[in-house]
Amino acid sequence: MDYPFLISDICFSILLLLLPIVWHYVSPSWGQDEFALPLSFSQGESLGVLDYNLLDAVKIPLQDPKTQYVADSEDGFPAFGFKLGSDVKMARRQILPDTLSQEFAILISAKPRTKKGGFIFAIVNPMDTIVELGVRIAPETGAYTVLYLYYTDPSVDVNSHIIANFTVPKFNNKWVKFAFRVTLENITLFFNCTETETVLVHRNPLELVFDSASTLYLAQAGPVIGEPYEDRKFKGPQIMILMEDLKLYIELMPDTERKD
Ligand SMILES: *[C@@H]1O[C@H](CO)[C@@H](O)[C@H](O)[C@H]1NC(C)=O
Ligand SMILES: *[C@@H]1O[C@H](CO)[C@@H](O)[C@H](O)[C@H]1NC(C)=O
Ligand SMILES: *[C@@H]1O[C@H](CO)[C@@H](O)[C@H](O)[C@H]1NC(C)=O
What we know:
Layout (H helix, E strand, L loop, with lengths): L4 E2 L4 H8 L1 H6 L23 E5 L14 E5 L5 E6 L4 E4 L12 E9 L5 E7 L6 E7 L6 E8 L10 E8 L6 E7 L3 E6 L2 E7 L14 E4 L3 H4 L13 E13 L9
Antiparallel strand pairs: 1-13, 2-15, 3-4, 4-15, 5-14, 6-11, 6-15, 7-8, 7-14, 8-9, 9-10, 11-12, 12-13
The site of one 2-acetamido-2-deoxy-beta-D-glucopyranose has 5 residues, from loops.
């Protein structure tokens, strides 16, 4: 695996200098994440960027303190912990718009606590059979694991599609920040502050329309697809994963309905 350029610890501040236009017109509140954003977001006709916090699906106070908890992340910010059997979900339309822009980015800061992998999040059709958009960590093999990005048009496909996969060092029990930058032609993975790999991907459609009744699941992909972030044979309050950040960045389109 090659790491073409190391952004290292100062990845955020360097990119702020490289992208002065973005920095000027967006709200500073998400400035530190912009290393992962498609460049087009700051150019031409772009109206701006919307960021959606998928962790808003965790209801406070916690609905089931046996399987959910709040912990400190590495940098002291609160993180959500998901234990075996946690069932966090929300109607997709309560939290996300109906259409994903052609280019988008997903940013995740998480600490898996199992080597078995599982879905970090999944937006699943009403029958719970197709992952429209999601990220899954594969079980560890040796020193590595694989990150999968799911992207499926629920109006034509009957099977979930993995549109990109990236092999990365295993990170069970470590906090890692990673991001997928999806542009018209490419998908780039940033892992642990390093731009690791770009793959050429032909996506169809370029603009994904979610099923109006799809569900956002956290730390699972719903009851049918299974492969939750857990080991069903394990008896006990196993911690599956902690998440500090789970954000989706999309380009503001004239008809985007902001969800707050
Ligand atoms: C990962 O993606 C490559 C194409 O980039 C594909 O050839 C390979 O089969 C995929 N692997 C898995 C496990 O999905
Ligand atoms: C992330 O990078 C740091 C510093 O480069 C390194 O010490 C750490 O092991 C890396 N984490 C993973 C999971 O590769
Ligand atoms: C896609 O990636 C290739 C190789 O990294 C690069 O040459 C090309 O400009 C990229 N295309 C876009 C639209 O970013």
